[in-house]
Amino acid sequence: MSTLDTYPYRQRMPRYLNRYGLVDEASGEDGFDPQAHGPLKAPGQKLLERITRHAETRKNKAGKKLYPGVTETGVLTAEVRAMFYTEFPQHPTFFEAFKRIANQDDRLDGQEQYTQGGQRWQGVTAVFGKTDYLKPGLVIPKLVIGDCSSGYTRWILWALEQSLGRVPRDVVNGCNWNAGYTGTITVTCNKVAVPQTADAIVFFSGSKSVHVAGVLDVAARTCISHGRDQAEIVDWDHHSGRGGFWRPAYGNA
Question: Please, which residues have CB within 8 angstroms of residue 156's CB and are 6 or more apart in sequence?
């Protein structure tokens, strides 16, 4: 009896059909459940046969078969499973991706500039649309110039893109990822009492929001902050006027 968890492959099967324009429903595929974990039954087998029939004909630029071990089959063979992970690599979790970009931007201290001018959105634009999984060791498009709110927007956008594999809705500022400031963050995000990684920490001067940073480690009380000179990891009370924590509505992304 098979013990293979088929869920990761069921999730990728509709994505393959959509990617290659094979979405026309074929006979016998009614009832396929992409959420199940057990063995593929007749509908899933029929769908997999259609996918592998397409995959076995694909060739690289040299004219050689792209997936030489894949032939038309309704069985999740090792070669078919590898093909799915080549097509759709395993994405990191949102929190893993957030920490990765935060740590990179922290390490690049000295290469970054601060501005409230027209170039402030450079770091967001640099990562917009980067939905393909970026393997560890490769450099995320760099933050060159920006400010606190564009920095926080950059980190959330990258983390969502890498974890979802698509461009998300703007759940930080509600401005389609091309504008925003501390005020739009407090309006668009929800204030929370108990913080978690990637929450926005908003700092106030009187009643006016003047700075935002992103929670990195709750236990260590650290955050990633693009201040007046560079993006750096600091204690979350490094800035005065901490007014609380705000969380994007990730479920709407």
Answer: 98, 171, 172, 198, 214, 248
Token code pair at residue 181:
């400031």
Domain boundaries, the chain: 7-87, 94-252
Q: What is the pLDDT along the chain (253 residues), one digit of tens a residue?
A: 347 889 889 989 998 998 998 876 565 677 889 888 889 999 999 999 999 999 999 999 999 999 999 999 999 999 999 999 899 888 888 999 999 999 999 988 667 888 989 899 999 999 999 998 887 788 999 999 999 999 999 999 999 999 998 999 999 999 999 999 999 999 999 999 999 999 999 999 999 999 999 999 999 999 999 976 678 999 999 989 999 999 999 999 9
CATH architecture of 94-252: Alpha-Beta Complex (3.90)
> What predicted TM-score, i.e. pTM, was given to this entire model?
0.70
In this structure, are strands 231-235 and 145-146 parallel, antiparallel, or unpaired?
unpaired
Residues in the chain: 253
Report helix angle 148-164 to 94-107, nearest 10.
140
Query: Cβ(219)–Cβ(226) under 8 Å?
Result: no
SS3 167: coil
Query: Do residues 128 and 143 lie in contact, with contact meaning Cβ atoms separated by under 8 Å?
Result: no
Taking the C-alpha atoms of residue 99 and residue 94, their distance in angstroms, rounded to an integer, is 9
